[in-house]
Amino acid sequence: MLSASSCSIFLLSCVSISLGSDLSNGWGEHIDWQKFDDAFKIAEEENKPVMLLIHKSWCGACKNLKPKFAESEEIATLSKNFVMVNVMDDDEPEDAKYKPDGGYIPRILFIDHGDVMKDLYNESGNPKYKYYYHSPDHIMSSMERALKQLEEGFSHVSDEL
């Protein structure tokens, strides 16, 4: 039989493991979030695009968008068609391809076969910060456009000629 202190340590360990594995970072526990390092393999296996949300814990705009995103049933429904990833703080990937027009936050990118779909951005936003979103409606619009493009076979626009 375990002592009270052993039970407390066990319980705290379970809570720590549970909290440590929460990939939502507050952006909706009901969404099937994946680790960045696993996302591209899963996307290939499931033939889905990746939706990458880049944010910071200290960012006011991120804090403003987070509850709206988390509460959106429409985003949750659309998310089933994507491999959903959100990275925060030091987990942000350093590769320049994840900063197609700058390193501002929050930034949402759609990725197909490892390539950022540069033509999928917030069409209602500021053209200087194409991948910045402040509204769930604008996010849903881009999610729907991504799915439509992929259905039509146009996975991304290339800069190459």
Automatic annotation (TrEMBL):
Q: Which UniProt keywords apply?
A: Signal
Residue intervals of the Thioredoxin domain: 17-152
Record protein name field:
Thioredoxin domain-containing protein 12
Q: Where is the signal peptide?
A: 1-20
Q: What class of enzyme is it?
A: oxidoreductase
Q: Which organism is it from?
A: Dreissena polymorpha (Zebra mussel)
GO CC, sorted alphabetically, is: endoplasmic reticulum
GO molecular function term, any single one: protein-disulfide reductase (glutathione) activity
Catalytic activity reads: [protein]-disulfide + 2 glutathione = [protein]-dithiol + glutathione disulfide
User: Do the record's keywords include Cytoplasm?
Assistant: no
- Record EC number: 1.8.4.2
